[in-house]
Design brief:
61 strands, mainly beta, seven-stranded mixed β-sheet, globular, 943 residues, 22-stranded antiparallel β-barrel
């Protein structure tokens, strides 16, 4: 044990520190062994066996009759209880998923131990000890329920989760979705690979640079609420558990295909009485995947490997080429994963995983504009890989779990090949168009090194109960960088075709940012009198971020951006926080069939390099100028805008600082729930969730306080100001002429954002796979309300930004969600899978901004305000019904050949899911709709 401590200390001494949020990738079996009278039985030999284990696990019951098997890989287990004077009892088909604790407490019958009793008692489906809310997509759900074959569309199927995109047959699989659950902030999410957080370190830190192969996963565990102290984030926690080898060879080969020929004709929505081309129907999608696992040395060394090749091409109907044809969106993805598991000794296990992904998007469009032409779309050719290792060791009742991981990524967003040297990015704020060239291009190198050490031990019959103690430390170093360029160094801005502004950039720049975090946690799960379990924990988080010394070449406009070399910064933010995680679970019946839970916890909101990137003086910065197009050619010449008198505003690290007393954003979460096992494999539950968010931060322009603005109902020409969203008069605020162009932004906590809160009630039904049938369903009633914020681009000193800001419905607030996943095998092996999702329409428009009214001819130039309280205008309700039909055929003893037909959007709904949010000639014009009905055909060989 001392060697383990010294080794851990060595790793920590050479590492700067960052939270990586180690979480359970395994489960537990625990219980108390009694006789027929209810008295505990001591020294019972208990063994656990499973195909998921290389060797069986063994333990004995303690003085309180209790036992625990910790760190069990997901799978089906058989547990045997043997002691002199009692018949040997065997419990089988105990299904363990990540984070699940199965409580199995047998009553032994008197008799000879040589007599074996196979008890057919129902395996537990209710976890009576944990407070954590999880949804586990096991191999049966991943393989047998129709979906997009990516983690984003899979997580969208979990109860309570709302995402930024609606997927039909993989239509959104090449752009990661933003997710929220039960009032969490969108993007407050973790992508955990085999239990280790390895997110992309840029921006808020809540996104991934890695797209996975679903067929390589044995489980996708989604932690949504009431997480223990070992989990850092209170939003969507996705734990991707890779498949492993086994003592028996197993594998898969699959081919999926769909095309325009298997798709219904899309129906254009009507806008102002005219059909509007909208949607991204498939041209073709081809998906090939294969994997193989088995023993190199039986019970000693297992190997597993997987490979995937995925090509997808869609039409973008809302954007046309010069010849009038719809532009296209071709994409390519390839994956490779290799895993090695080695049983060093009876109590020591070592595994390594290498993940590789290449994600290529040849015309990526994800700016705030709805209609982006091919020449303004980015080209993304992105390789990334992850190296991981895990060493688990047991010593008596102690379990040591050491994990490390390294993520390396090169993420480019570049111009299209052949882009002319005189290319110019053109943005029209009213028409929501972007043409000519991308707004900027960059190459983003990023890396994460992460290390986590967890220790747990079981102590039964101690301080009046049985205890499972856990403590650990997490550390990592995150580095993120950008090499930015902008064509001609400017973007040209138009309003309904009229030139209005020029945005000048400080490019080219070569930006670098670093942030570290360290965490320590302690928790105790103590069961009192076999019924009440208290989950008591506290988490300490340390965060600090800075930018290293750096420089950039001369700017395109050196007179505007003269300084190009910058020294290393001090720590821009240093936070030390303690967050409690307190829960109680009460086994009502004492038989493990029902539980009532209560929980309170605090969670720091995930952070990335975004704070440093915002104030880095070498980062991407702008100066905004009025543009007087004197020659009427619609092309900016320096003499038309590059004058000090035309300067409207500036942004970027040169004019931005951080409040030295900035506090870290966190959430308070309360959950009360009840779960009951009914029949043999069904669990029903009801949960109430409350969440509020504290210490949100944004910017204030200290050089333009609210007192520098004057209320007005007319513009500078005396024209009345009319809200283009409501068509009603509106009062705006004109900035004093002497203050126009002054920019001194402070990032600080905004007290009025402390009103943001969430209330939700959720009903769930889960049926574990039995008799060929599996179900997971959830119905959520919810509301997320408060004060709207644009994040770090906001200015809370500007009174125009306060218009319709309060009492908003926030983010992806679907007031009702209903989801059902199921697969059922009929006689003669004919199988049907169902994926149904219903969402109340989101407020307009969470992806592209709220209803916005744009005004010109004020002192400060263009002014955009919220034209209507957010939530008063909603997009249509969304209903998606997908079916899978299949019939496997046995080929010999081990092989299965399965033809598959997936039917997506079988109601052929053409629901609009995005509209232009800017008031004017294109207000509420549909920009996208869910894809029409499509059939996908597949052939899968497994053994």
């Amino acid at each position: 044990m001392m060697k383990r401590v010294l080794l851990l200390s060595f790793f920590l001494s050479i590492s700067s520190s960052l939270i990586v949020a180690q979480v359970a990738i395994t489960g537990q079996i625990r219980g108390v062994v009694t006789d027929a009278s209810g008295s505990v039985v001591l020294n019972v030999a208990v063994s656990a066996e499973s195909p998921a284990l290389m060797t069986s696990r063994k333990t004995t019951t303690d003085a309180g009759g209790g036992y625990l098997f910790d760190s069990l890989p997901p799978g089906a287990y058989k547990v045997t209880y043997t002691v002199s004077g009692f018949k040997t009892e065997v419990r089988s088909n105990i299904v363990i998923t990540p984070g699940f604790t199965a409580t199995v407490s047998p009553q032994l019958a008197i008799g000879a131990s040589e007599q074996s009793v196979l008890v057919s008692a129902d395996a537990p489906v209710v976890d009576t000890t944990n407070n954590t809310s999880t949804t586990t997509f096991d191999d049966a759900l991943l393989q047998n329920v129709p979906g997009g074959r990516d983690i984003f569309s899979t997580v969208a199927q979990a109860p309570g989760v709302a995402t930024s995109d609606f997927d039909i047959a993989g239509s959104q699989s090449f752009q990661q979705s933003v997710m929220q659950v039960h009032g969490s902030l969108p993007g407050d999410q973790v992508y955990s690979f085999n239990g280790l957080r390895l997110n992309w370190p840029g921006a808020t830190g809540g996104y991934t640079s890695f797209y996975t192969d679903d067929d390589s996963l044995s489980e996708l565990q989604v932690v949504t609420d009431s997480a223990p102290a070992e989990v850092a984030v209170g939003g969507v926690y996705m734990n991707l558990v890779p498949k492993s080898g086994a003592n028996q060879m197993h594998g898969l080969a699959a081919f999926y295909y769909q095309s325009a020929g298997t798709q219904a004709t899309i129906k254009d929505p009507v806008y102002d009485g005219v059909p509007v081309p909208s949607g991204t129907p498939f041209i073709m999608a081809r998906d090939v995947a294969t994997n193989l696992g088995g023993p190199l040395l039986k019970d000693k060394w297992w190997l597993f490997g997987s490979w995937r090749l995925y090509d997808l091409k869609e039409s973008v109907l809302s954007v046309t080429n010069p010849d009038g044809s719809p532009t296209t969106d071709p994409n390519h993805q390839s994956n490779l994963m290799l895993r090695s598991d080695y049983q060093v000794s009876k109590n020591n296990h070592l595994d390594f995983v290498w993940w590789f992904n290449e994600q290529n998007r040849f015309f990526r469009r994800d700016t705030s504009y709805a209609f982006v032409t091919a020449d303004a779309a980015w080209r993304q050719i992105e390789p990334a890989y992850i190296l991981q290792g895990e060493w688990t060791s047991t010593l008596h009742n102690w379990l040591f779990d050491t994990r490390f991981g390294y993520l390396h990524q090169i993420f480019p967003l570049e111009n299209q090949p052949g882009t002319p040297v005189d290319a110019l990015n053109r943005q029209d704020v009213t028409l929501s168009t972007e043409t000519g060239a991308p707004p900027y291009s960059f190459v983003n190198p990023a890396s994460v090194f992460a290390l986590a050490e967890g220790v747990s031990f079981y102590k039964g019959h101690f301080w009046g109960g049985s205890h499972t103690f856990k403590f650990g430390v997490d550390t990592s170093v995150n580095r993120n960088g950008y090499n930015y360029t902008v064509d001609q160094g400017i973007n040209a801005i138009y309003n309904d075709g009229a030139p209005i502004q020029v945005v000048a950039y400080n490019t080219p720049v070569d930006v670098r940012s670093v942030y570290h975090e360290t965490a320590g946690y302690v928790q105790d799960s103590v069961t009192l009198k076999r019924k009440l379990t208290l989950n008591l924990g506290v988490r300490y988080d340390h965060f600090n971020t800075f930018y290293p010394a750096q420089s950039s070449p001369a700017a395109t406009f050196p007179a505007l951006f003269p300084q190009r070399t910058f020294p290393k910064s001090p720590n821009i933010a240093t936070w030390n926080t303690f967050r409690p995680r307190l829960g109680a679970a009460y086994d009502i019946s004492g038989r493990g069939t029902s539980v009532i839970r209560a929980y309170f916890g605090q969670f720091d909101v995930i952070e990335g390099a975004g704070l440093t990137e915002q104030i880095n003086p070498n980062g991407l910065s702008t100066q905004v100028y009025k543009w007087n197009d004197t020659n009427g050619d619609g092309i900016p010449q320096p003499g038309e805008w590059d004058l000090p008198a035309n300067l409207i505003a500036a942004s970027g690290g040169v004019v931005t600082t951080v409040d030295p007393n900035l506090k870290r954003t966190y959430t308070n979460e309360i959950n009360v729930g009840y779960e009951q096992q009914v029949f043999s494999t069904v669990m029903v539950g009801v949960n109430y969730y409350f969440r509020n968010i504290k210490n949100l931060y944004a910017e204030r322009n200290l050089d333009n306080p609210a007192s520098d603005y004057t209320a007005t109902t007319v513009d500078n020409a005396g024209n009345p100001l009319i809200n283009s969203v409501t068509n009603q008069p509106i009062t705006l605020y004109n900035l004093n002429p002497a203050d126009v162009g002054l920019s001194n932004y402070l990032i600080t906590n905004i007290p009025e954002l402390g009103t943001n809160h969430y209330n939700g009630l959720e009903f769930t039904v889960t049926k574990r796979m039995s008799k060929g049938w599996q179900v997971m369903a959830g119905y959520t009633l919810q509301q997320q309300k408060g004060t709207y914020t644009r994040g770090l681009t906001d200015d809370f000193n500007n009174p125009n930004n306060e218009i319709n800001r309060k009492n908003s419905i926030l983010n992806y607030d679907a007031t009702q969600m209903f989801k059902v996943l199921s697969n059922y095998t009929f006689p003669k092996s004919f199988a049907v899978g169902l994926n149904y999702q219903h969402y109340t329409g989101y407020p307009l428009d969470p992806n592209n901004g709220p209803p916005t009214a744009v005004f010109e001819n004020l002192n400060q130039g263009q002014v955009s305000v919220i034209g209507e309280t957010i939530g008063n205008i909603r997009l249509p309700n969304v209903n998606i019904v997908n079916l899978r039909l299949s019939r496997p055929t046995h080929l010999g003893d081990r092989f299965n050949l399965e033809p598959i037909v997936d039917l997506f959007n079988i109601g052929n709904a053409n629901t609009v899911i995005s509209e232009v949010p800017t008031g004017g000639s294109s207000f509420e014009k549909p920009t996208n709709q869910i894809n029409p009905f499509i059939a996908r055909f597949a052939l899968r060989l497994s053994f």
